């Protein structure tokens, strides 16, 4: 199983090209990031090729301060679609296979309907380029008011839309912080999982610290036939010199 470094939280003191090189040198198989848009897509592709790395995913724009995405915000549909079009164009040029479509912070009763309607259009556009879209249930301890926090709601959105290129970002940290039994939830999500992320619970530090058992996560993923990568999206205890002993242990547990 491939393990990717999420450069939104790892090596954040480096610029993105240097962070990619650091991840490659540390033994990661791939990288993922949140918002690479400051670097032209063709330039980023060249950086990735030199490092022998793949960029697995990127996010749609977070919007303004305190919004955490635009796609579920009533009245912001045109901005959300424009943000998605930017993300898709970038992903196609940089050869990024997945886009995390950020819902945003909204407690409006129509937020999920807005989210679903925009996702439907986005799925059609992405399918033409072979790009998979991810939606991520995010816990409301960390992001109060996030429009999508319940994984069962994510399942209903995906099954309701019926788009084969719409999948769940199963972030084990967020699932655990919402009180779910993570291996059991992964079993329930099954074939709807498009990508997996891990971190220690509850501090979101190294994946081998806290209450989440990475070996149990791997076992659950094996049972549902997941063959994608696992993204390390955690805040290292030492941001400049991350302790990566967990990486070897996770490989041995696979």
UniProtKB/TrEMBL annotation:
Domain Xylose isomerase-like TIM barrel residues, every copy: 20-247
Catalytic residue list: 136, 233
MF-aspect GO terms: hydroxypyruvate isomerase activity
SUPFAM superfamilies the UniProt entry points to: Xylose isomerase-like
Chain segments annotated as coiled-coil in the UniProt record: none
Keywords carried by this UniProt record: Isomerase
UniProt record, GO biological process: glyoxylate metabolic process
InterPro entries hit by this protein: HyI-like, Sugar_Epim/Isomerase, Xyl_isomerase-like_sf, Xyl_isomerase-like_TIM-brl
Highest taxon of source: Bacteria
Family designation: Belongs to the hyi family.
PANTHER family to which the protein is assigned, alphabetical: HYDROXYPYRUVATE ISOMERASE-RELATED (PTHR43489:SF6), ISOMERASE (PTHR43489)
Protein name (database record): Isomerase
Organism this protein belongs to: Meridianimarinicoccus roseus
């Amino acid at each position: 199983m491939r393990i990717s470094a999420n450069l939104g939280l790892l090596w954040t003191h480096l610029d993105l090209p240097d962070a990619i090189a650091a991840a490659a040198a540390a033994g990661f198989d791939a990288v993922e990031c949140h918002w690479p848009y400051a670097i032209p897509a063709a330039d980023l592709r060249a950086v990735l090729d030199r490092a022998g790395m793949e960029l697995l995913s990127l996010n749609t724009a977070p919007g303004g301060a305190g919004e955490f995405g635009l796609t579920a915000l009533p009245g912001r549909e045109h901005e959300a679609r424009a943000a998605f079009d930017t993300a898709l164009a970038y992903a196609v040029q940089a050869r990024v296979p997945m886009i995390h479509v950020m819902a945003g912070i909204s407690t409006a009763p129509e937020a999920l309907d807005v989210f679903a309607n925009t996702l439907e259009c986005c799925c059609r556009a992405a399918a033409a380029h072979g790009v998979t879209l991810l939606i991520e249930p995010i816990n409301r301890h960390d992001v109060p008011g996030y429009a999508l926090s319940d994984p069962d709601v994510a399942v209903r959105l995906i099954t309701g839309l019926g788009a084969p290129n719409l999948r769940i970002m199963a972030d084990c940290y967020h699932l655990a912080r919402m009180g779910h039994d993570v291996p059991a939830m992964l079993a329930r999500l099954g074939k709807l999982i498009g990508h997996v992320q891990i971190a220690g619970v509850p501090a979101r530090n190294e994946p081998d610290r806290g209450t989440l058992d990475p070996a149990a996560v791997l076992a659950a993923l094996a049972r549902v036939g997941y063959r994608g990568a696992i993204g390390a999206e955690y805040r290292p205890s030492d941001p400049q010199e991350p302790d990566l002993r967990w990486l070897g242990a996770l490989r041995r547990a696979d």
